[in-house]
Amino acid sequence: MPMPKVIAPAVIVLLLTSTTVPPARAGGLLEATLPEQLVQEVTLAEQLTQAAQQYQTQLQQWENEIKQGQLLSAQSFSQVQSQLTGIQGVVQGGNALSYAMANYDSQFTARFASLGYEPATSYASRYAQWSQTSMANTQKMLDAAGYQNEQVTSQAALIAKLQSDSQTAQGQNQAIQVGNEIAAEEVNQLLQLRELMMADMQSKASFQAQQIAQTDEQNRALGFFQGTQLYKPY
User: Fold this and answer.
1) How many structural domains are present in the chain?
2) Minimal CA–CA distance to 104: which of 24, 14, 37?
3) What is the pLDDT of residues 175-229, one digit of tens each?
4) Residue 209 within any structural domain of the chain
């Protein structure tokens, strides 16, 4: 089975920490477009979603084999192990992305509130809520399967648990099932995250367009008066 390509969580964090709020131009005018990094982050969300979907499909295939009472070979289960650690990376990447977007929104709002940026909702709070919901749902599935939280956040702990589970068909089946459930949940959560990111970006883009339009109107008015000569009676 071909393995999906997933950006390592450490690389995701490095990319996200480069995202900064754009500086104001003369007169407080924002740049005409949102930073390119934000577009890249939406792309990251899409890549993470696609990876989770591929992992889910692959684990479903393994699960069908296990249901037939077959004990997977060490070589086959090593592929399962790689897919489960890949899901771990997706979960961590989604949370890193949510944290970065919340941080960006807080900076953007603090910098441009004086210019009138007052969104109807706090996107930073909604990103935090998304992260809490995502981790809570994942923890419920882990608890049901007898896994601990550190076995998702720590790759070494996860591998140790998987190696223990690989000794029996029941253990293999449990590992595959919990991975499949987490992958399915993460797909749903990442789709919601992407929707939230798009709404956030639209809010900021609309504000920027409004600021640019107001400045253009002021410049046109200034140009009109500068080009008008006062009437001088003879």
Assistant:
1) 1
2) 37
3) 898 889 999 999 999 999 999 999 998 898 888 878 777 665 556 555 555 555 5
4) no
Residue 150: closest CA among 69, 67, 64, 92? 92
Distance, in Å, from the CA atom of 99 to the CA atom of 10, rounded to the nearest integer, reads: 14
Q: DSSP assignment, residue 121?
A: S
pLDDT tens figures, 141-153: 888 877 766 555 6
Whether the CA torsion 44, 206, 217, 112 is positive or negative: it is negative
DSSP state of 115: G
Work out the percent of the chain whose per-residue pLDDT is above 70. Answer: 72
Residue 10 clears pLDDT 50, i.e. is over it: no
Q: Tokens 């499949």 belong to which residue?
A: 180
11 occurs within a structural domain? yes
Tell me if 220 is assigned to some domain: no
Domain enclosing residue 64, as ranges: 1-17+35-111+133-202
What predicted TM-score, i.e. pTM, was given to this entire model? 0.79
232 in a domain, yes or no? Answer: no
- Structural element, H or E, at residue 21: none
d(CA 96, CA 169): 34
